[in-house]
Records
---
Amino acid sequence: MQFGVLLLVMILSLLPCWNASAHERTPAGEVLVAPTLVDIKGNRAKFNEYRDLRGGVYGHIGLHYDEEKTYLDFRADNIGDRDQKYELEGGRWGSFTYHLGYDEISHNFAFRNSPSASGKTFGR
Amino acid sequence: MRRFIIVLSLLPIFLFLWVGLFSLEVKASDGTVGVEICKGCHEDRFNTYMMSTHSKKAIPGSPASKEDCESCHGPGAAHVEKSGEGGVGIFIFSKRLADAKAKSAKCLACHSEQKDLSFWDLARHKIEGVSCDNCHTVHSGTRKNLKAPQPDLCYFCHKSIRAQASRTSHHPIREGKIKCTDCHEHHGGFGPTQLKGDSVNELCYQCHAEKRGPFMWPHPPVDENCLNCHVPHGSSHNKLLNSRMPQVCRNCHDASQHPSFPYTRFETFQGPTPSNKMFAQSCLNCHGNIHGSNGPSTRGKVFVR
């Protein structure tokens, strides 16, 4: 729920950017949606210790607006995954800046904790 | 009356000419030529400059609000007169033509008041001859005018750290969840290895707060320094340990209650089944609360789960 509100705030914050673009400068940006195919040979949990790389769809959005007085950057990576990241940065040059971010860090750490596996650490 | 009107109408023309001549005189005296002249020959450099924060006139004291190119590179009149020849006092951010101190001085002329540059004089980077332009570029549209994003920028010099961060157990640096500047104050600081904390432990506790305590039964090496057992960037052993279990514990706990030497086949394969001495030899299997325990009586004292 909190994440949904945060995402809504970020999207609403982009509205002035689009409004300004009509009068001044077109914002630059990219939207990437790509299918991903992942084939992991070995410990899947260890491979994904800090990330969520699996088969499916990869999503990325990057928007950049910069003019003489104000600027706005929006970046979304790994949309919908467990390591998704959203960043909104903007401000008025020489006056103020703001930065909103949501960064999810997944951490698998129970991939080698069985007693027998721990015994392996003792081997010469 | 007619003569007065003629004089009055000519007055703006005289004023215009006078101001124009005065400004030409000023230009000649300080040797600047203006950004348009520079653009004429260096258009590619001008275009990248216009993408950077330095080109924002709204920022007080920015090059754009002063002399643009000539704010950093110096007056260009002599350069123009000699049809773009070198050796006329134009400052170029080049290893060959200027030393690190001179290059940094150019940047610090405007940036010295910046909060995060307060300790630049103490910075290891400065002592080692690193200048601002080694990491930053004036002509760029990247964040903080960096030449490359982190950690690749830092890895350009700190190659051993790249190797460590690529080991099997590592902080999520290569996954992009932690940046070098999350822990290190690259512009200088009082902490060891330019850390952002007053000590190693204080820095680690910012994320690993559950290790801070206070505990009823503290483990002294933990309070002393996290690096007694862990390495910060990456390790070949689980949980960023200096060495594998149980050796890391045996550095201090030498043959007191548990044997401090590896078991051999004589202790393990003499019976019908392998002895349990071959298994569960990680100290943490029993002493799980190794960073400190609030457990009652002796269970807590020996950090047993």
---
Amino acid sequence: MEEINNLMQGFAVAMTLPNLAYMFIGVTLGVLIGVLPGLGGANGIAILLPLTFTMNPTSAIIMLSCIYWGALFGGAITSILFNIPGEPWSVATTFDGYPMAQQGRAAQALTAAFTSSFVGALFAVILITFLAPVLAKFALKFGPAEYFAVQLLTFCSFVGMSKEPAAKVIAAMMLGFALAAVGMDTVTGQLRMTYGYPELLKGFDFLIAVIGLFGIGEILLTMEEGLAFKGKSAKLNLRVVLQTWAELPRQWLNFLRSTAVGCWMGITPGGATPASFMSYGMAQRMSKDPASFGKGNIEGVVAPETAAHAAGTSALLPMLTLGIPGSPTAAVLLGGLMIWGLQPGPMLFVEHKDFVWGLIASMYLGNIVGLVVVLTTVPFWAAFLRIPFSVIGPVIVVICAIGAYTVHSSMFDVVMMLVFGVMGYLFKKLKYPLAPLVLALVLGDMAEASFRQSMLLSQGSLSIFWSNPLVGVITGLALLLLLWPLVSAVKGMLMRNNNVKVGSS
Amino acid sequence: MNENSTKTDAESANDPKTRGPEVVVALMLLALGVLVVVDSLRVGIGWADDGPRSGYFPFYIGMALCASSAAILGSTLWHWRSLDEVFAERSQIATVMAMLIPMTIYIVTMLWMGIYVPSALLIGYFMRRHGHFGWRVTASVSLTVPVVFFLVFERWFLVPLPKGPLENLLGL
């Protein structure tokens, strides 16, 4: 029960008055970010990251992770009241949440959504509490070959599990790696791909990419829908909350299934968005009354919210233990850790025990704070959303520009933000996935370093990735996932050939 | 998304298709891939005395980028006629441009006017042009926001933001 002890010490670290204040600030900012289109968990944290450089790392990461929880909670508000998903992972919440609001059951829908988010996150944090130390201990034995194999697995699982065409996943990912390689080679010190431009010496910062791709790109996408917001109003009172809570235990199976889907998709870098869709689909298929889905069934709110929050939380597990983030937001947090001189990975659990357990404890507290904040402040956020987009839109652009500038105090970054923004819009429209791009940009240098170290060990022979059972299994799994689209394409082709006579494809 | 199924075929035939931008993006990725490969070859993709050279890893990245973007390009051109998915309606593109163009001007003016004045102008422009607010509301919001940002960043967090001639004049 060493974990419990550590966790208690963690609570002692996290429970100080300033840290609790940072939690409140973080959650409130997070809900704001989650509610506003164009600002999301990933770019919201990226924008606020420079402001935390002067804080101590524990308080800073507590605040930043609370922004993340807040954003996860906040996404549900716009989905249910406005039928506009504030975050991609709350798209599935609109399917049943908005119909519920139209029927005047907005309060129930919101309570169900917030509670499900909380339950999903809680299970994921419990998972992190007990699994993270084990995984970290296990990963201490990893050499460069094992590290590269795990990174390979991360990237291959994008190819295997994405809904997007494999060529586009690979192209987006390789673009990320290529951008990461620009600038000084960390091993030899040689300049690469700068083509004589001094601005490119320090390479492309992923924070700028995140602000552009997710922030500016999202705003451009929002503009397509026009400038109007039309929403339902909602009042949450204690009676409705308690009533809804009394109904929710009946959904225990739905909760359990959605949590499992979410945790799995979060640890493997499937991410919160596919997890929410998958969980919604499963809930519908297994429901006693599938026809009522999409017409205001509370199960259709519980399933995606639980899964999204479980995925969003468990994405931090591989980030902390292996230094491999499971989502773009986790990647931004990882970037933050590195800026504060904390190298995520198994050594973090040995060298910065206080920090790790403080963070894990803050996940429990942050989610409780988050639940309380959202349940009590819904009317305020709903009112906030009535501010016309002709005011909110340009303000968000200004915030993004400030965020991009403050990373390195460089105007070149602001220009790059615009370039990434246009790219993000085009990529979204053309169905290139953004998550592998960001993750490749973050992990590029690390992946390259571990690859080169492996090659040094083996004198350039790729056989090192099969040299022992552990690394062999990971590499094998990675290759299987990489080739999965091919397998399913062949399967699909065979199926189609069989179906041609029937006439349905 | 917002693909209007109520539109008739003749109307949606006018809207730009996905295939055009698809080709442009694939070509750009291909060009970037070539840039990566060329520069990797320049710094060396083989082994030196102390291990793999700088281009060793990026070379394969560049090759994979070229291969995947070429595959996208090829399949788009191959299926050109049957690809009639609409990229966005003309009116949607117009609203996107209504944001993109002022945003670009905003960032360009930032280069010599600092961040505060262009921010006020951008917010003011949107509120007048798209929000149809009165002058008084427009002025108060578009002036308050930059002032608040100034206080939060420069005074509270001590993070300097770019300033221009006006700020110099005011001695900030």
